């Protein structure tokens, strides 16, 4: 791609399109409203829960879904569509794709397609195990190279020193691995409806509680608020 505009002027680096979101510390990184970001990340999961609960009702009103199968398959199809829409909205708003939701989306679409093609709900049930294991290994593996990838998720929420990020990253990495084991236990030993209910109403509360438990750590390692310091001066 040319580094000049059609008028022959140098192209601004801010105008360049980056497929993946920029580094957390990059001042050119565009941010989405935190509430909208939460909706885009949790919305597809809520769609999955609703579509599974009302699968027959939806199939009656959307003819092509009637041939897919039972509620779990209708929910899977809706989950895939909602995930694609959420990623598309992120791209439209900031012209880049968030890394963690993108990785999750790729797995949702892959395992969702296998679920519908083979008509086997096992694939969509294994998806959280794969995602949690992958996130856990990425976070813990990054520590080996003295990197913390949590900044891609939490950079707009708070700022920590290096030691704080290291400890928080290790804790979240272990949390994801534990949740992978929990998912395996639940889908193998309980009904599909129970698994879906736990996925929606169990995972989120547990994540919130775990996050709240990290507040003392974040307070101890929080960096000074540069804006507040500047105002005082």
Can you put this structure into words, describing what you see?
The protein is mainly alpha-helical. It has 2 domains: 30-101; 121-223, no CATH class. Helix content is 70%, strand content 0%. The chain is built from 12 helices and no strands. α1 (34-53) packs antiparallel against α4 (71-94) and α5 packs antiparallel against α6 (122-144). The protein is globular and about 55 Å long. The N and C termini lie far apart (45 Å). Residues 5-15 and 226-233 have low confidence and may be disordered.
Give a summary of the structure in a few sentences.
This protein is mostly helical and 233 residues long.
Total domains: 2
Given the helix and strand composition, which structural class is it?
mainly alpha
**Spatial gap, N to C terminus:** 45 Å
Helix content: over 70%
User: Count of helices?
Assistant: 12
- What do the pLDDT scores average to? 78
Largest sheet: none
Beta-strand content: under 5%
Along the chain, the helix and strand elements come as HHHHHHHHHHHH
Silhouette: globular
Q: Show unreliable segments.
A: 5-15, 226-233
Count every beta strand, where a strand is a DSSP E run of 2 or more residues: 0
Radius of gyration: 21 Å
Q: How do the helices and strands line up, and which of them pair or pack?
A:
Blueprint: H1 34-53, H2 55-61, H3 63-66, H4 71-94, H5 99-118, H6 122-144, H7 151-154, H8 162-189, H9 192-201, H10 203-213, H11 215-220, H12 226-232
């Amino acid at each position: 791609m040319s580094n000049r505009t059609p008028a022959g002027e140098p192209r601004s680096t801010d105008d360049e399109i980056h497929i993946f979101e920029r580094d957390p510390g990059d001042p050119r990184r565009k941010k989405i409203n935190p509430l909208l970001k939460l909706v885009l990340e949790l919305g597809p999961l809520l769609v999955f829960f609703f579509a599974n609960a009302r699968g027959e009702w939806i199939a009656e009103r959307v003819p092509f879904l009637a041939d897919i199968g039972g509620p779990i398959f209708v929910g899977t199809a809706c989950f895939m569509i909602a995930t694609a829409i959420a990623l598309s909205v992120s791209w439209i708003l900031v012209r880049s794709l968030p890394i963690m939701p993108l990785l999750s989306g790729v797995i949702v679409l892959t395992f969702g397609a296998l679920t519908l093609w083979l008509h086997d709900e096992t694939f969509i049930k294994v998806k959280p195990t794969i995602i949690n294991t992958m996130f856990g290994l990425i976070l813990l593996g990054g520590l080996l190279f003295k990197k913390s990838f949590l900044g891609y998720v939490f950079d707009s929420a708070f700022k920590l020193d290096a030691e704080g990020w290291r400890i928080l990253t290790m804790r979240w990495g272990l949390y994801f691995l534990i949740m992978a084991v929990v998912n395996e236990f639940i889908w193998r030993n309980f009904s599909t409806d129970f698994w879906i209910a736990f996925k929606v109403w169990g995972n989120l509360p547990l994540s919130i509680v775990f996050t709240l438990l990290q507040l003392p750590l974040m307070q101890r390692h929080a960096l000074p608020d540069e804006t507040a310091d500047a105002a005082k001066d």
